[in-house]
Design a protein that fits this description.
The protein has 3 domains: 2-40 and 164-246, 3-Layer(bba) Sandwich (Glucose Oxidase, domain 1); 44-158, Enzyme I, Chain A, domain 2 (Orthogonal Bundle); 272-569, Alpha-Beta Barrel (TIM Barrel), CATH 3.20.20.60. It has 24 helices and 16 strands. The chain has 570 residues and is of the alpha/beta class. It is globular and about 80 Å long. The two termini are 24 Å apart. Helices cover 48% and strands 13% of the residues. The structure holds phosphoenolpyruvate and magnesium ion. The site of phosphoenolpyruvate has 10 residues, from strand 10 and helix 19. Magnesium ion is lined by residues 404, 431, 452, 454-455.
C-alpha cells in the first residue's frame, strides 16, 4: 500500500491512468502495448488419467515417459545453444533439471507400480516441489522450473503443444503470475516489449534475465491477475507501474520520452563522472570469463564484483588451485590492465557448494555462509587465494580481493592478513548491518569496502531477499538501508579509502546518483545497466546528487525516498 502511494506520488508528472497497478520496478524503460499471457495446460487435473497401467504395459509406459522428458530436455538444450549469457545458463540449468535422476526416478517408480505417466509426472514433481519449498532460498526458486518442466513433459506425453509464452504477432507486454526462467530466457525483446509479474522479487531469475535482455520489467504487482489478455497497458519499469487502458496520447508521449532518454544514454561512453567532472567508477558485475568479455563491450571501466562461487555451483569436489587460476585468469585477461575485484567464495544460504561441507541449518541465510565457511575449513580460502595469486602472476593483472559476509573487525583483520601474504589488495563487503556500523574499525585493516546492498537490505530489514511477499521491504531505497550506506561511505571518506556499491542498488540510475551523493566512489552493476547508470550520472552535478542524498536520508519510507530523489534529480 505504501508502495502504491509512493508510485502514484512520484510518477504524478507522467501519470497516465486512473488505474495504475503498482509493483517493484526492476528494469527501467516504458512500454505501451497489448497484453499477452503465457499459455497454460488445460488443467492438469483433466489430463491426469485415473485407473492403473496394466502390468504388461508398464515397461513401455516408463520408456514413453523417459523419452518425453528427454525430448523436453533436448528442446531446452537447443534453446540454450541459441541464447547467450545468463539466458543460456538458465535454459541449460532447466534442461539439466529435466533430466535429473531424482525426480525422473520417482516418476518411473510410480509408473512401474501402475500409475499412469501423466499422473506419475505430476505426483513426482509435487514431491520435489514440497521438498524444495521447505529448503527455501535458491532451492525454493527452482520450484517454478520444476513446475515448468512438469507441464512440458505432460504436454509431450499428451500430444499437446508445449506450454509457455506464445509468440505474439505484434509487440506486446507479457503479464504472468510468475514466469519460469526458461520462458523468460527465451523471450524476444523485439516482440516482448515489457514484462510484469504478480510474484517474483527484484533479485529473482525473471528479474535478472529481463535486465540482461533490457526488457522493461516490474515484479510483485498487486492486481495484475485481473488484467485480461488483449487490454492495452502502459508499463513503466522506472516507476514500477502498470496502467490499464491509459489515455492513448499520454501513453504514447511517455513512450517517446523514454525512447529519447534511452537514445541519449546510448551515446554515453564513460568514464563515469557527474556532469561537473566528479569521477565515480562505473564497473560491471560478472560471473565468469564469458560475462567479463561481454562486459568489455560496454563502457564499464573494470569489474567491481566477480562472483566466484557461481563458477562452482555444479562442482562435485573442490577445484584445484590450477583449475581456479585458469578460471580467474579468464576474467583478469578480459580486463587486462584494468581494475578487477574478485570476491572470495560466497558459498552457503541460497548458493550452497557441494565441496564446502555445509552443515544442516534451520536458517541458512543466518548460518555458515560467505567468509564463515572458512572458519572450520581454512584450506578452502587458502587454496582460493593461492589460485587468485597464480592468476595474477600469469596475467600480470593484480586484482583486488574481497570477502563476503564480514561481520566483525577481527574477521576483516584475519582476511586482510591472508590476502596481503599473497601480495594482493584486501577489502571486504559490507552486507551485515554490524559491519556498516563498525566500518571505521574495519577500515583500519583493509584497503577498500564494497557494499552488497542486496544482503545489506535483507539483513537490515529482516526480510528474505528471495521472498516476493517481502519485496517492498528488501527495496534498496529503504531509508534504513541507505543510512547504513551513508555511514559506510563516510567512514571511507574519513580515511581516504574507496567505498563502492556492487549490489542491485548500483544498477538503478536514479539510486546510483543518490549513492554518489552519499560519497560512494564506484558503482558496479550488471553489464546491461552500465550505460544507463553512467549516462544518468553524467546528466547531474555532484551538488544535485548530494542534495538528493540529503533529502533521501530525511525520509521515512522507500516511497518517500524515491520521490525525494526524483524531485532533486529529475
Ligand atoms: C549483495 O549482497 O548485494 C551482493 C552483491 O552479493 P550477492 O548478491 O551475490 O549476495
Ligand atoms: Mg551478498
Amino acid at each position: 500500500m505504501i508502495l502504491c502511494n509512493l508510485v502514484h506520488m512520484t510518477s504524478a508528472a507522467r501519470d497516465t491512468s486512473h488505474s495504475a497497478l503498482t509493483g517493484v520496478p526492476v528494469v527501467p524503460g516504458v512500454a505501451y502495448a497489448p497484453v499477452i499471457r503465457p499459455g497454460r495446460l488445460p488443467g492438469i487435473d483433466q489430463l491426469v488419467s485415473v485407473g492403473e497401467v496394466a502390468e504388461s504395459d508398464r515397461d513401455q509406459e516408463a520408456a514413453r515417459f523417459t523419452a518425453a522428458a528427454e525430448a523436453v530436455a533436448q528442446r531446452l538444450r537447443e534453446r540454450a545453444a541459441h541464447a547467450t549469457g545468463a539466458a543460456s545458463e538458465v535454459l541449460g540449468a532447466t534442461a539439466q533439471l529435466a533430466t535429473d535422476r531424482a525426480w525422473l526416478g520417482a516418476a518411473e517408480k510410480r509408473i512401474r507400480q501402475g500409475v499412469p505417466p501423466v499422473k506419475a509426472t505430476a505426483e513426482a514433481v509435487e514431491q520435489f516441489v514440497e521438498m524444495f519449498t521447505k529448503m527455501g532460498g535458491l532451492m525454493a526458486e527452482r520450484v517454478a522450473d520444476l513446475r515448468d518442466i512438469r507441464d512440458r513433459v505432460i504436454a509431450e506425453l499428451s500430444g499437446l503443444p508445449e506450454p509457455g509464452v506464445p509468440v505474439p504477432e505484434v509487440p506486446s507486454v507479457l503479464l504472468a503470475e510468475d514466469l519460469a526462467p526458461a520462458d523468460t530466457a527465451g523471450l524476444d525483446p523485439a516482440l516482448i516489449v515489457g514484462l510484469a509479474t504478480t510474484l517474483g522479487g527484484p533479485t529473482s531469475h525473471t528479474a535478472i534475465i529481463a535486465r540482461q535482455l533490457a526488457i522493461p520489467c516490474v515484479v510483485a504487482v498487486t492486481g495484475l491477475d485481473d488484467v485480461p489478455a488483449g487490454a492495452r497497458v502502459l508499463l513503466d519499469g522506472t516507476g514500477g507501474t502498470v496502467a490499464v487502458d491509459p489515455d492513448e496520447g499520454t501513453a504514447e508521449a511517455a513512450v517517446a520520452a523514454a525512447k529519447e532518454a534511452a537514445a541519449a544514454a546510448a551515446s554515453w561512453h564513460g568514464p563515469g563522472a557527474t556532469s561537473d567532472g566528479h569521477a565515480v567508477g562505473v564497473l560491471a558485475n560478472v560471473q565468469d570469463g564469458a560475462a567479463a568479455r561481454a562486459a568489455r563491450d560496454t563502457p564499464a571501466e573494470g569489474v567491481g564484483l566477480f562472483r566466484t562461487e557461481l563458477c562452482f555451483l555444479n562442482a562435485e569436489s573442490e577445484p584445484s588451485v590450477e583449475e581456479q587460476a585458469r578460471i580467474y585468469s579468464d576474467v583478469l585477461e578480459a580486463f587486462s590492465g584494468r581494475k578487477v575485484v574478485i570476491r572470495t567464495l560466497d558459498a552457503g544460504s541460497d548458493k550452497p557448494l557441494k565441496f564446502a561441507g555445509h552443515p544442516e541449518e534451520a536458517n541458512p541465510a543466518l548460518g555458515v555462509r560467505g567468509i564463515r565457511v572458512s572458519f572450520n575449513n581454512p584450506a578452502i580460502l587458502d587454496n582460493q587465494l593461492a589460485g587468485i595469486a597464480a592468476a595474477a602472476e600469469q596475467t600480470g593483472n593484480s586484482p583486488w580481493v574481497m570477502a563476503p559476509m564480514i561481520a566483525t573487525a577481527d574477521e576483516a583483520k584475519d582476511f586482510a592478513a591472508k590476502v596481503r601474504a599473497h601480495g594482493l589488495v584486501p577489502g571486504v563487503m559490507i552486507e551485515v548491518p554490524a559491519a556498516a556500523l563498525l566500518a571505521d574499525r574495519i577500515l583500519e585493516h583493509v584497503d577498500f569496502l564494497s557494499i552488497g546492498t542486496n544482503d545489506l537490505a535483507q539483513y537490515t530489514m529482516a526480510a528474505d531477499r528471495m521472498s516476493p511477499d517481502l519485496a517492498t521491504l528488501t527495496d534498496p531505497w529503504q531509508p534504513g538501508v541507505l543510512l547504513l550506506v551513508a555511514m559506510t561511505a563516510k567512514a571511507g571518506a574519513a580515511v581516504g579509502k574507496p567505498v563502492g556499491v556492487c549490489g542491485e542498488a548500483a544498477a538503478d540510475p536514479l539510486l546510483a546518483c543518490v549513492l554518489t551523493g552519499l560519497g560512494i566512489t564506484s558503482l558496479s552493476a550488471a553489464s546491461a545497466a552500465v550505460t544507463a547508470v553512467g549516462a544518468k550520472l553524467a546528466s547531474v552535478t555532484l551538488e544535485q546528487c548530494q542534495r538528493a542524498a540529503e533529502a533521501v536520508l530525511a525520509t521515512s519510507s522507500a516511497t518517500e525516498a524515491r520521490a525525494a530523489a526524483l524531485a532533486a534529480l529529475g
